[in-house]
Amino acid sequence: MNQFLKTLLAASLALSVFSATAADMKVGFVNVDRLLKNAPQTAEVGKKLEKEFSPRAAELDRLKKQISDQETAGKDASSLRLDFERKQRELNEDINIRKSEELATLQDRINKTINTIAESEGYDLVVYSGIVYANKRTDITDKVLKSLGAAPSSK
What are the structural domains, with CATH classification, of the chain? Predict the structure, then answer.
């Protein structure tokens, strides 16, 4: 038997074993976009960050008005403008850092929730991102949302 036929036979055998195993698997997926949109923790994070950064945003608004008032009066506001731009840049960077921290915390909670559901309901595989196609009957997003405290959404 030549090498090509041996390789073809091995691949065919592996495929048939995988097919038999895959047919017995319980598979689910989680729609990340819908999960993040509807999870109550997402709104909580937004409110938390708004509260945390609103004083600095208000300071920027005051500074912006001060710049406008000086320019209206014909005064040079270049140093104020530089200060405003620096503070705005720092605020944006700090907000992005805090969003990343909060998202990591939420991601950890979501992963634990998915693992709990998968183990308690006997899933062999749960796919969370990078899905090209999934049949609706394998979608466990509503179960995860319910476990996170959100009402299941209408898809």
Answer: 25-148 (3.30.910.20)
